[in-house]
């Protein structure tokens, strides 16, 4: 009888140890439509496909936050340049590797933050000026759809309260609609 108790305890411990790993190894694809308005008022759209090979771990999240705190955008870009691709974002026909993808649970579903170690190419746009070195995608995936934003070229920093603040290259925000899996 004691043998089964110990075996059960070992199996439970193994399951708890593997749970964070399985979250990090989960693969999925999210689709959306990118919408933006030009200064002239013309609305443009493009299909978006976010492919997630695996999610970043808590340790990887902490490393990104430490790099952001110590050296800002350049620190994050330098850190991500050493990381392997863990997913991609395709806007229209242009694909950009993603180096950091973190998901957390919200009341509506999940909030996914994805960062490219370079600006996200959307085709047809001018190159981002120096310093706007990261591409950022924030998507809330809910049971009934979701919404999100795409910042193709941005700077990031921490404010006095420790919140992440973005400074996009363009004043125009690219909205992500029609979120699907």
Q: How would you portray this structure in words?
A:
With 181 residues, the protein is of the alpha+beta class. The chain has one domain (25-180). Helix content is 27%, strand content 44%. It contains two helices and ten strands, in the order αββαββββββββ. It has helices at 2-25, 58-81; strands at residues 28-37, 43-52, 87-91, 94-98, 100-105, 109-116, 134-142, 145-158, 164-168, 174-180. Strands 1, 2, 3, 4, 5, 6, 7, 8, 9 and 10 form a ten-stranded antiparallel sheet that branches. A hairpin with a 2-residue loop joins β3 and β4. The longest helix has 24 residues, at 2-25. The radius of gyration is 19 Å and the shape is globular. It starts with a helix and ends with a strand.
Question: What low-confidence regions span 5 or more consecutive residues with pLDDT below 50?
Answer: 1-24
Q: Percent range for helical residues?
A: 25-40%
Class inferred from helices and paired strands: alpha+beta
Oligomer description? single chain
Beta-strand portion reads 35-45%
Main β sheet profile: 10 strands, antiparallel
The CA-CA distance between the termini, in Å, is: 46 Å
Output the helix-strand order: HEEHEEEEEEEE
What number of domains? 1
Give the averaged pLDDT, no decimals: 81
- Rounded to the nearest angstrom, the radius of gyration is 19 Å
Total beta-strand segments: 10
- Helices, by number, come to 2
Described by the principal axes of the CA atoms, the overall outline is: globular
């Amino acid at each position: 009888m004691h043998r089964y108790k110990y075996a059960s305890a070992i199996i439970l411990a193994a399951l708890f140890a593997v749970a964070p790993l399985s979250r990090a190894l989960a693969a999925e694809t999210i689709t959306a439509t990118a919408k933006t308005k030009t200064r002239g008022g013309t609305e443009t759209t493009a299909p978006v496909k976010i492919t997630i090979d695996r999610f970043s771990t808590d340790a990887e999240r902490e490393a990104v936050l430490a790099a952001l705190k110590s050296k800002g955008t350049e620190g994050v870009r330098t850190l991500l340049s050493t990381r392997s691709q863990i997913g991609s974002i395709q806007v229209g026909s242009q694909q950009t590797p993603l180096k950091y993808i973190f998901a957390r649970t919200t009341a509506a579903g999940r909030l996914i933050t994805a960062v490219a170690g370079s600006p996200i190419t959307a085709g047809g746009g001018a190159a981002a000026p120096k310093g706007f070195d990261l591409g950022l995608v924030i998507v809330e995936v809910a049971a009934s759809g979701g919404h999100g934003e795409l910042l193709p070229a941005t700077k990031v920093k921490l404010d006095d309260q420790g919140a992440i603040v973005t400074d996009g290259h363009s004043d125009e925000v690219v909205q992500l609609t029609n979120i699907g899996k």
